[in-house]
Amino acid sequence: MTYKELYEMGRAALEQAGIEEAVLDARLLLEYVCGTDRNYLFAHGDETVSDSWEEHYVNYINKRAEHIPLQHITGSQEFMGLSFFVNDKVLIPRQDTELLVEEVMLYLHDGMSILDVCTGSGCILLSLLHYSNDCKGLGLDISGEALLVAERNKNNLGLLAEFLESNLFSALETDEVPEKWGKFDIIVSNPPYIETEVVGTLAAEVKDHEPMIALDGGKDGLDFYRKIAKEAGAYLNRGGMLFLEIGYNQGEAVTGLLKESGFRDVQLKKDYAGLDRIVFGTYLEEKHV
């Protein structure tokens, strides 16, 4: 079978399975199997593909037709120009979250300390460390399996960071962690924020293959924001900043939570679609752990 014929077969199979991005995914999976680029289909589409590559491609197409995310098949997702390993233990990094990283970078200076709560794959913290100098970072997550993914990404990128299993800030309530890290200049988080009753309506790729613990934000989607807003100040230096990714309709509520918890100059940023996406503020009150 030729390269183009194999692609057309994969595209048709994904379209029949109702995959929204059938054209793109069929091409990307073929490029993944054959080690080619996007131009190969047009320049060398009549070349014969080996039986081994054909077998691998058909296997991956069948998996994608079952709505297994493309990134779980290839084991990678690009984020902030970096390649991150992902599996079904972490959320797949999304373009919206790049806006969160970019916003933090506007306020991030060399030598700062960063705490990433609900770190997952580590993509937020590791991107910030990659694009800064002499910053140090700690990532917290309740899932030990997610932390294995974050550690792998840290090693793949050759970055210095530490990851700890923690229910939000619980690891910081011990004596040794605060003694080692002190307080932080920046806390950043993309916590679970989907309303419980909405989770079941999400695309199969999300609800069936991404970790529920990283999606469900409680009845109104705000459970984690309430806790983070209330507790974050205890771990921030005076003048430190908290940055949060939020759902499209949570701007007013999360802004209010930060103001109630002692944050000042609280700002709401929208994404490119004009939807609420980021809330951040500066902590000026003194709190003791």
Beta percentage is 15-25%
The gyration radius over C-alpha positions equals 21 Å
CATH superfamily membership of the largest domain: Vaccinia Virus protein VP39
Q: How many distinct beta strands? A: 9
Q: Helix share of residues?
A: 40-55%
Instruction: List SSEs in N-to-C order.
Output: HHHHHEEHEHEHEHEHHHEHEE
What's the mean pLDDT score? Answer: 96
Task: Walk me through what this model shows.
The protein has 289 residues and is α/β, with parallel strands linked by helices. It is built from 13 helices and nine strands. It has two domains: 3-66, Helicase, Ruva Protein, domain 3; 76-283, Vaccinia Virus protein VP39 (Rossmann fold, 3-Layer(aba) Sandwich), CATH 3.40.50.150. The protein has helices spanning 3-16, 22-34, 40-43, 51-65, 70-74, 95-105, 123-130, 144-157, 176-181, 196-199, 204-207, 223-232, 251-260, and strands at 76-79, 82-85, 113-117, 136-141, 162-165, 184-189, 236-245, 263-270, 276-283. The strands form two sheets. A seven-stranded mixed sheet has the order 5-4-3-6-7-9-8, with helices on both faces. The longest helix has 15 residues, at 51-65. It is elongated and about 65 Å long.
Map the helices and strands.
Blueprint (H helix, E strand, L loop, with lengths): L2 H14 L5 H13 L5 H4 L7 H15 L4 H5 L1 E4 L2 E4 L9 H11 L7 E5 L5 H8 L5 E6 L2 H14 L4 E4 L10 H6 L2 E6 L6 H4 L4 H4 L15 H10 L3 E10 L5 H10 L2 E8 L5 E8 L6
Parallel strand pairs: 3-4, 3-6, 4-5, 6-7
Antiparallel strand pairs: 1-2, 7-9, 8-9
Helix pairs in contact: 1-2, 1-4, 2-4, 6-7, 12-13
